């Protein structure tokens, strides 16, 4: 299967949701995710994130699931991204992958990994993916 690269920017709105663990010492939170993608990936996503902070500045983690609807290089459909990322004293480790077999429409069979970059308050993405021909 051929591999492709998609790049662009996105805006994101995170809104607090009630935490399942309301104990303040747990430092856990929950957010809704609403994104608007532009560039090689054009579309929107909705999802949910659970995060955990620590007492150490710059250390935290989050997991999230988001369903993306749109088009990549002109092929339309939907797919799900699974996030599992952390910060270790300011050093980021990201894992954002397409959930296997989540692609629909012309994105059926989509596989890949997405990397998020935040610079000067702006969000961008680099998405390495493969699709059946």
Q: Can you put this structure into words, describing what you see?
A:
The protein is mostly beta strands. It starts with a strand and ends with a strand. It has strands at residues 3-17, 28-39, 41-53, 60-72, 75-88, 91-93, 96-98, 111-119, 122-130. It is elongated, with a radius of gyration of 16 Å. Strands 1, 2, 3, 4, 5, 6, 7, 8 and 9 form a nine-stranded antiparallel sheet that branches. Helix content is 0%, strand content 68%. It has one domain (3-130): AOC barrel-like. The mean pLDDT is 95. The protein is built from no helices and nine strands. Strand 5 (75-88) and strand 6 (91-93) form a beta hairpin.
How would you describe the shape? elongated
What is the number of domains? 1
Tally of separate helices: 0
CATH superfamily: SO1590-like
Based on helices, strands and strand pairing, what is the structural class? Answer: mainly beta
- Spell the H/E element sequence: EEEEEEEEE
Low-confidence stretches: none
Reported by name, the CATH topology is AOC barrel-like
Averaged pLDDT: 95
Task: Indicate the percent of residues in helices.
Answer: under 10%
Kindly summarize this structure in a few lines.
The protein is mostly beta strands and 133 residues long. The chain is built from no helices and nine strands. It has a single domain, classed as AOC barrel-like.
């Amino acid at each position: 299967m051929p591999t492709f690269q998609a790049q662009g920017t996105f805006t994101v709105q995170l809104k607090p949701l009630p935490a399942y663990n309301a104990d303040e010492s747990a430092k856990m939170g929950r957010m809704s995710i609403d994104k608007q993608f532009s560039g090689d990936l054009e579309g929107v996503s909705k999802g949910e994130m659970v995060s955990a902070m620590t007492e150490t500045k710059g250390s935290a983690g989050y997991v999230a699931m988001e369903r993306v609807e749109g088009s990549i290089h002109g092929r339309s459909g939907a797919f799900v991204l699974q996030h599992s990322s952390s910060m270790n004293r300011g050093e980021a480790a990201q894992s954002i992958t397409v959930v296997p077999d989540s692609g629909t429409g012309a994105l059926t069979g989509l596989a890949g990994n997405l990397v998020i970059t935040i610079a000067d308050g702006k969000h961008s993405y680099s998405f390495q993916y493969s699709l059946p021909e």
